[in-house]
Amino acid sequence: MCEGGLQETSFQAMMPSDRKITRDSGMSSPSRPDDLPDFKYPPVNEVVLSLQFASIPSFHSAHIGLFWQKIRHEYPKVSAQAPLQAAFETFGIIPVNPASPFQIEALLSPPMPRFWFEEQDGNELLQIQQDRIIHNWRKREAEQEYPRYESIRRRFASDLERFVDFLTTESLGKLRPNQCEVTYINTIEIPGEEQIYRHLERITPLWTGCTAERYPLEIEHATLQTRFVLREDGRPFGRAYVSFGPALLASQNRPIIRLEITVRGKPRDESIPEAFRLLDQEREVVVRTFAAVTTPEMWGIWGRVNAK
Amino acid sequence: MPSNTALRRITSEDFFMDDGVTTVSKSRRPEPEITFDKFWSHYNVAPEQKWQVEVLKHLVKYAALSPGWDSYVGVPLRLDAGFFALSLLNDIMRPRTPMPQVVPSPVGGVQLEWHEKNIDLELHIAAPYECELWFEDHRTGERVSRELSNDFSSLAAPIAQLTSR
After folding, report:
1. Considering only alpha carbons, which residue of chain A is nearest residue B59?
2. Residue B112 falls within a domain, yes or no?
3. Which A positions 77-96 lie with beta carbon below 8 A of chain B?
């Protein structure tokens, strides 16, 4: 099994050199850049938009029920999950110790769970915990079409607006975003190829599948993980994580390659419009990264419409 | 099951945390179910190193301070500022790096200080990505005073000197 190294590569070259972030309200739906890679049949299986914010200590599990009353008609199902750990992207120091698993909140009082609010059919999901709000779109049926980022963003903006209003009404505090994250999960198949695990080089140019000497090593499967630094005006503001790995479609026991791309970064200030501006920027990075780390053969299968 | 179990895992994937993603690859081995009443034991993981124990004690104490704790307008430690400080220390503390003094700041942040080996090093963390660094090496006369956001490369050399001297 081979693993890509955790090399940090500057991502700046991948963005158009004249790209500037224009000043606008930040909450309005963004216009899609004309040169953003586009696919008729993208292999997207899940999209996650996440805002991490300064923990609101006064926001307790008891408030969840009150908030659920306001969204219950849209999200009739609710459940509790373990809370996610806070994440920060810092630079300039090579970490010495593994990431710490403990949370201060857990030592002050029993931790507040992360709550899932699901649509009846499970396609869309809202997740809330004391320092995070997340919206997921998931593909539940094979024929289900990807609704596109703009539609998912609108739902998230609507969820967030209602949550912020709730915090204000209940005098719980102000929501101050300190990290934004966009994740796309793709399930990749090669039509007619049952040994897909052995042919990662047909899916991504990051993998050659070759060895230095002629030695009959039979690849069973491969995992590739790469991390890229994102810069703006020469300064790092976030990272893009790319992960290829083998998986099986549970419904048909069919081998596929799972490609996960996560872009995480710090907004320029702790305002919601700025956070959405960063989410839009991160989504653009995800899409450009997706095209950059996949092969023209795959683009043909996915129906790329604007290849250079 | 609440998660989207459409995929089954072939190998472990621990590259980065499962940040709200629901399309998880399930292991063939059954995983222990984490129920609500197990949250406390699951998350009350004992710190592994002495500095973690000591720093955590301070952070927990400061997070529980009452408003006006400094007889003025001091606010308790912001939990995200505390966790940011903890994460940063996790990145920089070597086995021989001296333990910092941990001091609350009235704005809800925390100050990490080292005053030894002819070195004064102070790092004020007001909030995630809002930090200030003061460093003076009394042997060489070197001084650094800088605001830091997400780039902590300025901290690397002072910590290295503090650790190796």
Report:
1. A104
2. yes
3. 79-96
Residue B38 domain-assigned (yes or no): no
Is the complex ipTM higher than 0.85?
Answer: no
Using an 8 Å CB-CB cutoff, list chain B residues near A223. 11, 13
Chain segment A258-279, per-residue pLDDT in tens: 999 999 999 988 999 999 999 9
Q: Is residue B19 assigned to a domain?
A: no
Structural domain count of chain B:
1
| Segments forming the whole domain that contains residue B144 | 50-164
Q: Please indicate, yes or no, if residue B20 is contained in any of the structural domains.
A: no
pTM exceeding the 0.90 threshold for the entire prediction: no
Of A43, A38, A3, A10, the C-alpha closest to A308 is A38
Cα A96 to Cα A94: distance, rounded to the nearest angstrom: 6
pLDDT by residue (tens digit) across B85-99? 998 998 898 888 999
Taking CB atoms and an 8 Å limit, are A111 and B39 in contact across chains?
yes
Q: By the CB < 8 Å criterion, does B90 face chain A?
A: yes
